[in-house]
Design brief:
This protein has about 170 residues and is of the alpha+beta class. It has one domain: Gcn5-related N-acetyltransferase (GNAT) (Aminopeptidase). Helices cover about 30% and strands about 30% of the residues. The chain has a seven-stranded mixed β-sheet.
């Protein structure tokens, strides 16, 4: 597996991976209506690519996963999502964000997510952040818990046709 910064030229493959991951990996946790609504809340924020804080993991030329971190206020969502805020976070007082983590269903449980998460954590730490937070899905909760994240609060995204359960998960890194 090779991890590289995501490029604008990767966007079409990233979007395909996100769609299949949302649709297939959320099935045990969400109703069909909630899975459909997840597409309103989730997706690619191209600001992450521009900031060089978003990564792609490739295996034999196939996109196995993507994800990253951010020094901006937006907690989750894609370019199309409501409530985006590009304001810069203060590493002394704010937690960096883990953003848009997706693994292709054919590559789960092979270290893809952990590689992205560890790379993101190291980059956020190097940027001076002492803590991280994310909006996690129910499907992601067990993985993030194994990686040392704890649930700070449970809530629902209300931007789609039906509410979608999410969790704010946090971790200290400094």
């Amino acid at each position: 597996m090779k991890i590289k910064f995501a490029q604008i030229s990767d966007i079409s493959q990233i979007k395909l991976l996100m769609n299949v991951a949302i649709t297939q990996l959320q099935t045990p946790y969400l109703t069909p209506d909630q899975i459909s609504a997840s597409h309103f809340a989730m997706g690619l924020d191209t600001q992450l690519i521009e900031d060089e804080t978003y990564y792609c993991v490739w295996e034999r030329g196939q996109l196995a996963g993507c994800g990253g971190w951010s020094f901006r206020s937006t907690l989750y969502g894609g370019n199309h999502s409501a409530g985006r805020d590009a304001a810069r976070l203060n590493p002394e007082t704010d937690r960096a964000r883990i953003r848009a983590m997706y693994t292709h269903p054919n590559f789960t449980r092979r270290g893809v997510g952990r590689l992205i998460l560890e790379t993101s954590e190291a980059a956020a730490r190097a940027a001076g952040f002492k803590g991280l937070e994310m909006a996690a899905t129910l499907a992601g909760e067990p993985f993030y818990a194994r990686c040392g994240y704890v649930v700070e609060r449970r809530w629902q995204d209300e931007n789609g046709p039906v509410p979608v359960p999410l969790l704010t998960m946090v971790k200290q890194i400094g």
